[in-house]
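Sample intake — WD repeat-containing protein 48
Collected from: Ophiophagus hannah
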Amino acid sequence: MATHHRQNTAGRRKVQVSYVIRDEVEKYNRNGVNALQLDPALNRLFTAGRDSIIRIWSVNQHKQDPYIASMEHHTDWVNDIVLCCNGKTLISASSDTTVKVWNAHKGFCMSTLRTHKVKYKKCNKQYLWCPSSLSGNKDSIYSLAMNQMGTVIVSGSTEKVLRVWDPRTCAKLMKLKGHTDNVKALLLNKDGTQCLSGSSDGTIRLWSLGQQRCIATYRVHDEGVWALQVNEAFTHVYSGGRDRKIYCTDLRNPDIRVLICEEKAPVLKMELDRSADPPPALWVATTKSSVNKWNLKGIHNFRASGDYDNDCSNPITPLCTQPDQVIKGEACKVEDLGKMDFEEEIKKRFKMVYVPNWFSVDLKTGMLTITLDESDCFAAWVSAKDAGFSSPDGSDPKLNLGGLLLQALLEYWPRTHINPMDEEENEMNHVNGEQENRLQKGNGYFQVPPHTPVIFGEAGGRTLFRLLCRDSGGETESMLLNETVPQWVIDITVDKNMPKFNKIPFYLQPHSSSGAKTLKKDRLSASDMLQVRKVMEHVYEKIINLDNESQTTSSSNNDKTGEQEKEEDIAVLDPNMDLRTVKHFIWKSGGDLTLHYRQKST
């Protein structure tokens, strides 16, 4: 019965369908890494970033392959992660508008927090997501910090100020002014009396919350400061940002700074190894897909010796030139063509068949994401031959690419296997052990890899449901699909109602060189996939009177002269070309397509 009740929510909003082209196991970061968390007890590093995947790595340098596992559920950039509950729980925040709670040891998602109050139960533990509203920010918040005791929260934003609250009462305590650009990083000391801020204005500021003012400004970077870390004693700050340089600065003496290293890309995040004091290493993530571990032991020795450069006018040599450990990212080279003519290579791969735009492509995560929208998903009709498919009976049927793709993405969903009116009969056959699929699964031409992520989401908004292609046959997934899949997808995948052909208007006239009488200018209409050969047949059968020899053109010599004069304006059409290809590649102008004909001289 559940399959007969249409969803109440999906029908009221515009829902798009997306899928990601990727490998089954994505072991390596495909894009920049936004967040890091280190579990020194288990020697594990968690990375999260722009490819939407959270990965777990072993930081044991003796392991040849550091990859442990991936945690996948987000559909957009993961902007931050926090390891809590003694390393048992990981919380992630994403641009897909969700906060997710993960079992950090086993690597599965325990809950997705979408609203202000969400309860979930797992392993006999109950959690409550119920944040209070801390109002006051006028612009987008880019950074947050809370002290360990949970008595102070500080936010930074494009408003260029720091706002401070008491989370216990939701009272706004103060607003701190001083930065001249976006505040990208914040840190609080344990008792919540001091705050460090890093800004796109290139400065680091130390604030006294008791005095409600800035007590020190550190100008060590040439460009914006995007990431900060501080030691337990809150005496030394590690900073990185757009200039790719990572410094260690003594907060008690602003002139004392050490250039630790210089990365190959802007620094997005840093994580101190706090397994010892002072910290032995610093993990650094950048806009590139690799993550580096830099040794800090030399820095401590350097500081102790007092052999540092406090003259900001002199260039400082980095203490480290090579990282201790690298967790490599991955970008695949498909083919190297070497040195050759670019235009010639395009011509080799070009086929003059026009297919209307029927999907959009997004590379935001570093992996190809294809999105289908109701407005243009069914615009692309092609012949099986042009699409590279062969028909068992040798025919050349017309195929709708968007419809075929939707059928392939949902081919494991049981609801697409039979007609709803046949369910009772199918259940009877199943009881008798004689169940057969009355309708073919999928589309009969191609399949997508079973591990392909399929995403249903609001247009330009949040994700409604994400699943793997092969999982749509599961009981829970099938139920959620019933609630999420929009009607325009149901029409194709369940009801098997393929869209109608697109029509194209055109005019048909004899060419001026033919000597034939100009016809009454009637506007014709046909499928945009109609081939030129069919138009030729129409001309011969309906227009040219082959039996009347008297109507053939006279003065052939004059015609030839006219032909020669206008030869450069004539494009002889390939009989196998369709009308939309003619209009797009040859007609190339506005208004209705006009085709001219003339008899071929023998």
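Post-analysis note: The mean pLDDT is 84.
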